[in-house]
Amino acid sequence: MTFRDSAWPDGTPCWADVMAPDRKQAIEFYSALFGWDFVEGPEETGFYSIASLDGHRVAGVGGIPPGQEGWPAVWTTYLAVSDIDKTTEAVTEAGGQVLAPPMDVMTEGRMAIAADPAGAVFGLWQAGDHSGMQAANIPGAVTWNEGMSHDFEAAKAFYAKVFGYGFDDMSGPGFSYATLTVGGNVVGGLGTLPEDTPAEVPPHWGTYFAVADTDAAVARLVELGGTVLTPAFDSPHGRVGIVADNQGVAFRVIAQKG
Q: Are residues 159 and 240 both part of a single domain?
């Protein structure tokens, strides 16, 4: 269990949100699946809504902004930064792209959207009044974030240059994977997409939500109109289900060991 009310260290995944084709439908789905409560934001935010568990912020749900209806609906991982202008410059210098330049979100903080050289999209968040997730690693909250691409070494070089990550290599026969460390603490992962990954699946950052029982969570998701992309399986870290919500947005659920 992790609870925090202050800004997260630079490079740490600090927030996750989804921009869904139907925001209200997404709110109903995730409320029923994870037990989230929501506070709807004002009209100037597009009614962006904050999800919470027991009063702790855990994620955000918004609608796809006008003029961007063709953008895919995905869960976006936001990495904490203390100087978003400096970080976006570093992204460009390292060969990435800034898709949405830094902007103020009222007094909540500053955000930007970027992509690494392989095209994996992630957000940047400089905390203001909104420090990010207040709870993680509990059922219904984010528990893991990982960047997956086809070129492991190139990805490592990019993220090390931009965020100064350390790496603990966990690679084995047939796969490449490393955990990302900040100040000696593991904060996420970086790996290579499996060879059998469908061509339509691009490099991306994936979001895992903790659940108490993976099979029960997957069954409930199907009842709510979601889709099982990969049947639940056991991993060294827990039982994982790769799923999509009732609007086709992919994510993972995991009941962790221990």
A: yes
Report DSSP state, residue 248: S
d(CA 66, CA 53): 29
Q: 194 and 116, same structural domain? A: no
Tokens of 172: 């084995």
Q: pLDDT means per 10 residues in the chain (258 residues)?
A: 92 97 96 97 88 97 79 91 98 97 95 96 97 97 96 95 95 90 96 82 94 98 97 93 96 89
pLDDT value of residue 65:
77
Residue 127 pairs with which residues in a beta bridge? 109
CATH number of the domain within which 33 lies? 3.10.180.10
Query: Which amino acid type is present at position 84?
Result: I
Q: Do residues 13 and 78 lie in contact, with contact meaning Cβ atoms separated by under 8 Å? A: yes
Sign of CA dihedral 157, 72, 25, 212: negative
pTM: 0.95
**What SS3 state is found at 38?**
strand
Cβ contacts of 145 within 8 Å, gap of 6 or more: 13, 16, 77, 188, 189, 205, 206, 207, 208
Looking at residue 258, its pLDDT comes to 62
Question: Quick one: 44 and 33 in the same domain?
Answer: yes
* CA distance linking residue 61 with residue 30, whole number of Å: 9
At 206, which amino acid appears?
A: G
- Residue 225 has φ and ψ, to the nearest 5°, of 100, 5
- Same domain, yes or no: 113 and 194: no
Domain enclosing residue 71, as ranges = 2-135
